[in-house]
Amino acid sequence: MARFFRSKPTSVIRTSASKPETPRDWRKYLKPAAVFLLVVFGYVVYSNWSSWLESLDKTPIRAYALTHKTQFTTNADIREALSKDPALKGYFGQDIQEIKEKFLTISWVKDVAVRKVYPDRLSITLVEHRPVAIWNDTGLVSDQGVVFSLPKNRFERTGLPVLYGPDSEAKKVLDAWYKIQKDLQSRNLGLMSVATDIRGSWTITLDNQVQLRLGRGDWLPKIDRFVTIFPEIDVPDGKRLAYVDLRYEHGAAVGFRPQ
């Protein structure tokens, strides 16, 4: 009895028409779309943030409070600073940096901190320069060597050191004052003023009105020379010693003025 066997195909070739259709999974597109929409929303919010906040402001800032008592700054000064352009906005729309810049235009204000208080107030902290010397007869120098101005009726200048020089050299001149004053005290001499010029030449005035022209370089040997020759200076009758020029390598030149 004969048997017939049907052999199995060794490979199957499928065409595109024979492939079953797989349903598309739309869920994989949801996350990128959500990220895209979030970025667009964030950009729109960022671009219109200021406008939206300003729309919430019903009135501009109209009051302020100082955190501590100031020495030189008056309420009139503060109101004048706040009234400068640009005009004050409301709580949400007001830029704090704009207000700080207004106060820093006041010469004697060293630093300022400003905080907004809802709904329409400011909290202001002012830091003022502390004057320690008179500068070029009209200005003042702070303890950090900063030149600034101050109305004369706000501060008593009597007894302050008097300094002269280019504004850029204020700190250098102030430091020189302290050093020269200390050197003179050890010689029982008092100091009234210190001056320098653009060439770095120094002149000091003692509290007896005698001017010492020290020139450039180290002043200590020149002051020592003055102390040595001072008792030997012959002052004519009716005259008084005006200056001693110590810029020479040896000796000195002197000048007199009427009593």
Choose one word for the global shape: elongated
Number of helices: 5
Give the biggest beta sheet.
9 strands, mixed
> Strand tally, please?
12
Mean pLDDT: 86
- Helical content stands at 25-40%
For the biggest β-sheet, the strand order reads: 6-5-4-7-8-9-10-11-12
Q: Separation of termini? A: 160 Å
Structural class: alpha/beta
- Cα-atom Rg, whole angstroms? 40 Å
Uncertain spans, ≥5 residues at pLDDT below 50? none
N to C succession of SSEs: HEHHEEEEEEHEEEHEE
Subunit structure: Part of a complex composed of FtsB, FtsL and FtsQ.
Transmembrane segments: 29-49
GO biological process, one term: cell division
Keywords: Cell cycle, Cell division, Cell inner membrane, Cell membrane, Membrane, Transmembrane, Transmembrane helix
Walk me through the structure.
By secondary structure, the protein is of the alpha/beta class. The chain has 5 helices and 12 strands. α4 links the parallel β7 and β8. The longest helix is centred in the N-terminal third of the chain and has 27 residues. The chain is elongated. 17% of the residues are buried. It is found in: Cell inner membrane; Membrane. It holds the Pfam family FtsQ_DivIB_C. Keywords: Cell cycle, Cell division, Cell inner membrane, Cell membrane, Membrane, Transmembrane, Transmembrane helix. Its main location: membrane.
